[in-house]
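Lab notebook, bench 4. Still working through the backlog of constructs that have no structural model yet. Next entry is a single chain of 215 residues. Request: give me the structure tokens for it.
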Amino acid sequence: TTIDVQAQRAANAAALDAEIPEGAQMAIVGLDPETGAILAMVGHKPRPGVAPGELNRATQSARQPGSSFKPIVYATAFELGGFHQATVLIDEPATFLTRGQPPYEPVNWDDQFMGLLTVREHMNLSRNIPAVKTLEAASAEAVAARARELGYDVQPYFSLALGAFEATPLQHASGFGAFANAGVHVEPHLVTRVEDADGNVLFEAEPRRKQVWTP
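Model written out:
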């Protein structure tokens, strides 16, 4: 397998020591973005004396990534929409229209508006309305297409800009791996090779590689 013993021990220790609310759960995924190898994985919050369940939350529990998806929206606009870090957008009340759908009126987490700021500032502050404007400029279809290349299962809605879809921790970690790998997304995998008792190779991983972003 691809598991790195030292990384897995570190993940186990981090999960054991993690302070999370009573009754909550967690997951950890560690990847090599260049190869797609899963180096460490924890699928539950370990508790002394409690046996782990069957559910691996790293690979089976889908949750909304929320604002952590915004870099993918901005990156698409940089490459396809003519945006750059100094592009100026206005953070103000906005309504977005899609034929056959009710009007979409996103709000910011603090119910305030920052006015004119650069894309860099809006991203640093995680402003919602500028993120949706950025998706509109690049087109929801283009952002969704890039997201699918990164391994997400998404549809081209305005709410995509705010991570209003579901993904597993493994999918999300893998998607972001392309940023660390010169724009190349590598399909994550856990099994490198399978051999029989005589050493014959029955399976060898050939993870899919895709140039999603320019370096």
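Notes after review: Helices lie at 5-17, 57-60, 70-80, 119-125, 128-138, 140-149, 169-177. The chain has a mean pLDDT of 96. Flag for follow-up if needed.
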